[in-house]
Predict the 3D structure of the following.
Amino acid sequence: EEQILPTRPPEKLFTIPDEVWEEIQAAESGLVMHLDFQEETWMQIISDGRLILDGNHSPGFRFRAAAENEILIHCGNLGGFIYTLNGRPGKRLGRSGDVLRNIRLTPDTLDRFLEDASIPRNSPE
């Protein structure tokens, strides 16, 4: 009579969701910006030459922008939002009602926009 032996269960594998994987890759090679609007704010965002956000945004609106080389922002209310860059808190860019065009974020200029730029970009937190 043939004996059937139990087999070892397969190794457990896990899958990283696509959006998490994209976030990891962008943070390693470029820019990921998360915005949280706290006041009515007009904003236009251009990511690597492509318009990805344009218009007025209400408090509570959230947006994620990713780019390999550059995020360009035009904003009608600099005090109307908070943001993170590659997972780190960003500096306030101005006060409520302040307007600024051509805010240019690149991997090279990233530290200028961070709340605490004394922490090296790739250091463990």
Summary: Strands lie at 31-37, 41-47, 50-57, 62-67, 71-75, 81-85, 88-89, 100-105. The first helix runs from residue 18 to 29.
